[in-house]
Amino acid sequence: MKITVLGAGSLGMITGAMLTKAGYDCTLIDVNRAHVEAMNTKGAKITGFYEDLIPVTACLPQNAQGIFDIVFIQTKQPAMAKALESIKDNIGSDTTIVTLQNGIPEWKVAALMGQQRVIGGTVYHGAKFLEPGVSELTTEKDAMHFYVGELDGSVTPRLEIICKMLDSAGGCEITTDIMSIKYTKLAMNTALSGISAALGCSFGQALDNYDAMRCMLYLTQEVALVMEAKGLMAVDMEGYHPTVANYSFRTEAEMWAVEKGLRSMIELSYDEIASMLQDILAGRTECEIDDINGQVVRDAAECGIEVPFNKTVINIVKKILQGELKPEFANLKYFSIPELEE
Fold this sequence. Notes:
This protein has 342 residues and is α/β, with parallel strands linked by helices. The protein folds into 2 domains: 2-176, Rossmann fold (3-Layer(aba) Sandwich), CATH 3.40.50; 181-334, N-(1-d-carboxylethyl)-l-norvaline Dehydrogenase, domain 2 (Orthogonal Bundle), CATH 1.10.1040. Helix content is 43%, strand content 18%. It is built from 12 helices and 12 strands. The strands form 2 sheets. Strands 5-2-1-6-7-8-11-12 form an 8-stranded mixed beta sheet, with helices on both faces. The longest helix has 22 residues, at 178-199. The termini are far apart.
């Protein structure tokens, strides 16, 4: 079976390398020529919570050969449509496309490629691009995890094959409710990544700042309200379980009780920064803010729910991208944080 990781950047390189190490015929595709050359000549070097140097096969999109049976997409959403178009000649009538991305890209991929091709997926670990051919795993290795699921909730032979593959790249489970899993991850990204990008800090630094921590709690609360309205069931993610009941608080004591779940998850990725912040620090003029916090705002509007914290994060990050603000803790002044009861 011929497979590829489309978007073999920080996280995609790790996925592709570990699939290759497990014996799968995997091609790592990326648009970064220097990165592709480094992977081919030196191998894929993984550092951080896991250390390895794995020989891989990598190429630019235009140099991909043959028809792929499975395409694991790990591009960022703004680059997704162009990336799929770039390998259209390598996608056959029976090719399965697995969306291992932030946000909720499944319906966009279905519109482009046909819903029957698409399997939804979620990644519960993070990575940082260090230099061509080198990525840092920023989550503890034991916490690496994928979920995959058919969009209609069925359990199919292809889903079981894909789960077995990803199990060798960090552990994987099949779900019959992929949208609830995706939205749980979206809640995490909305809170942690949104604040990391807006304030220019690691997840741990945000957790240890009283006001930033409260912003993450309120961001989670907003997503939980949207999930409840959409009939989605949050899952427990290393102690982080973003339901309305779990993230409702009015007093200081109740807030600290809620904070425990947030802390239990962040401690696994304490020094990690958001991929959106990585884009900002690299001088890029776009990131996934519209696909993460923006997804929540759009869905909230459809449900008639107000999400002021998510709107504020979007406003701050877009001003940073436009050069009007810097990513720093001073941006906390733009949030209207409620006073808690005694």
